[in-house]
Amino acid sequence: VQLQASGGGLVQTGGSLGLSCVASGRTFSSYVMAWFRQAPGKQREWVATIRRGDSTLYSNFAKGRFTISRDNAKNTLYLQMNSLKVEDTAVYYCNRGNFWGQGTLVTVSS
User: Fold this and answer.
1) C-alpha distance from residue 67 to each of 17, 24, 79 (Å)
2) How far out from the chain centre does Cα 76 lie?
3) CA geometry: angle at 60 spanning 23 and 87, to 5°?
4) What is the pLDDT of residues 48-87, one digit of tens each?
5) What is the pLDDT of residues 95-104, one digit of tens each?
6) How far apart are CA 93 and CA 106, in angstroms?
7) Three-state SS string across the chain, please?
8) N or C terminus of the chain with fewer C-beta within 10 Å?
9) Are strands 104-109 and 3-6 parallel, antiparallel or unpaired?
10) How far is CA 81 from CA 42, 55, 66, 88, in A?
């Protein structure tokens, strides 16, 4: 399985950014997918999960600001991030079980 994340970049506080993650394989819709992030000097932490059937879970810091979604026809996972804060600066990773994407860097400037 290959997971290719993209969409990171530099954004100002309060801005928005959308991340994408394209997965290889045929049965994308069957899997639970998630986003994690790792800030400089910190451990990787969970951001959000989307299950089969598209139910979603969010970490406390993501609730109300981030939206995880998927397009099964495109084998693509998304993370829409709004009202970004400096503390959201991190490398964001898409995840499926034991498989990780390469990460995409999000930098939020004040």
Assistant:
1) 11, 22, 6
2) 11
3) 80
4) 999 988 999 999 999 999 999 999 999 999 999 999 999 9
5) 999 999 899 9
6) 11
7) CCEEEECCEEEECCCCEEEEEEECCCCHHHCCEEEEEECCCCCCEEEEEECCCCCEEECCCCCCCEEEEEEHHHCEEEEEECCCCHHHCEEEEEEECCEECCCEEEEEEC
8) C
9) unpaired
10) 20, 18, 4, 9
Cα gap 100→2, rounded to integer Å: 8
Q: Strands 56-58, 66-71: parallel, antiparallel or unpaired by DSSP?
A: unpaired
What residue type is assigned to position 7 of the chain? Answer: G
